[in-house]
Design goal:
This protein is an all-alpha fold. It contains 11 helices and no strands.
């Protein structure tokens, strides 16, 4: 009974920690002058949607991809969102190490499951992991297109870097489409 309560408390603590991502901002956008960028949780939500869609298009397991997408930045509750330029100067712990600490007190099946998901994403070996990584880059590109449409002209480097990072044909096709349309294009389908 004591183990059950301890595991429940450890798992609940992990859930509270994940709530931090709702308030933690994606810091790379600050370099573009954006004072109120999306949160890590907002980013991860759309990465999950994009990942599931890309997985369907690429013929891999959408649930596995969406799960990797959901957990791909959870470590940022502990190490923050380190912009790419900052990574040149910092030696942060590996995401697998941070994840192991985050779930160390969680229920054993939760601990093992979360660690397995993060390890697969970080290993970049399975088709699902490659699609999940493309989803992360494609979400950055889509977000940059939205910021550009709002008048931020300093996002082109983010668009170029994201576009050049895409590996799958489906991600490249979606990026090409997103680059030539308004972020509100979807409304025209229903509004005529």
């Amino acid at each position: 009974m004591a183990d059950e309560k301890t595991h429940a408390a450890g798992t609940a603590g992990f859930l509270f920690e994940m709530g931090v991502l709702k308030n933690a901002k994606r810091t790379g956008w600050w370099f573009t002058g954006n004072n109120n960028p999306e949160s890590i949780a907002e980013h991860s939500f759309r990465v999950g949607i994009i990942g599931a869609v890309l997985a369907m298009m690429e013929g891999v397991d959408p649930a596995r991809v969406a799960l990797m997408c959901l957990f791909h930045d959870t470590q940022e509750t502990r190490i923050g969102d380190i912009p790419h330029i900052g990574r040149r100067y910092l030696d942060a712990a590996a995401n697998e190490t941070v994840t192991a600490d985050q779930v160390s007190a969680a229920h054993p099946t939760v601990r093992d499951g979360v660690q397995r998901v993060v390890a697969e994403y970080e290993a970049k070996e399975t088709p699902e992991a490659l699609v999940a990584r493309d989803a992360d880059k494609l979400e950055c590109l889509v977000q940059a297109v939205e910021y550009r449409a709002q008048g931020n002209s300093l996002v082109q480097d983010w668009i170029d870097t994201s576009l050049n990072s895409l590996k799958t044909p489906s991600a490249r096709a979606l990026a090409d489409a997103a680059l030539v349309m308004s972020p509100l294009e979807w409304r025209r389908t229903y509004l005529g």
